[in-house]
Amino acid sequence: MKNIAQKDYLNETTFTSKDFHTSNNVPLLVSMTLATFKESRLPLLVILTKDFFHKIWTDQLKIGIQQMLLGYSSHFCLHIWMDDLDSTEVRKWSTGLLRNDSSFRRVKYQDLQYTTDKELKEQIIALIRDNTDREAKYRNYSVQDQDALNFTDLALKSLSIKSKDTAEGSPPTSITSVPSSSSKKRKKKKNQSANQYLRGAAAFPKAKVPKETTRLRDLSLDQRDRITTLLDVGYGANWKQIGHFYQLTPAEFRVIETAGHAGQRPADCLLRLLLAKMPDLSLQDLKEKCQRILRRDVIEIIDELMGS
């Protein structure tokens, strides 16, 4: 997996990469690194191999990793399939990775034509920059486990219909009736809220639900930061106790501590790890853990966020 930090899209581009082959816990390291890349909203290059699926898709972190890959918030995202992968093989693991839209691009390694590393780099940059004027509605959207949610196949079929109609020169086909003016306004408001979420300025728009069902992933980065700051520098840095309540392994604790030594906040790493392991983790559950360690300050923040 490579994170592409672009200082200047037209002139200077630098590549930073993460190699996971030497790690003792590949899924965990992939999950935490991908979460960091996703929050940065920088362009992302993912190199996929058959070995990737064997190591990741058979692990308990698979759902969280898949969600982040399919819902990467930057529309500059490119997947390169190595020679041991084809559409038949990928379909065995994830139909979502086969979807077609302008913000989710892929290329086979054998189709890249280059003789030097510089030429390869230029090709990759061109592919990532391709079609940058696409509309926001075609940006990456979040997809959950396709075996658990039926709407994924419907979404893919809808995208396929639109792609086919556009190629034939006819207007995109809609599978819904023409909305009224009031429904258009509601849709516009939801789209604005979604765009704010992608920038980290607001929580993801959702229907009104009982506060006990509010999930950790529904929070914006700023809201989550209010919790992690207290857990890191409050009355005693209780993030480790929270980790023990959720039965983190020694290897997972070491990864968090290593990230802390590298300048990242441990509590923030903890919540990102919990999100990867338990995408539907509720704020109520986290609140109950904080009650066990008597962190009233954190509980007050959680109550405020649950009621907002």
From TrEMBL:
SUPFAM superfamilies: DEATH domain. It comes from the Eukaryota. Residues 164-196 are annotated as: Disordered. Residues 170-182 have a biased composition (Low complexity). This is Death domain-containing protein. It comes from Clytia hemisphaerica. The lineage of its organism: Eukaryota, Metazoa, Cnidaria, Hydrozoa, Hydroidolina.
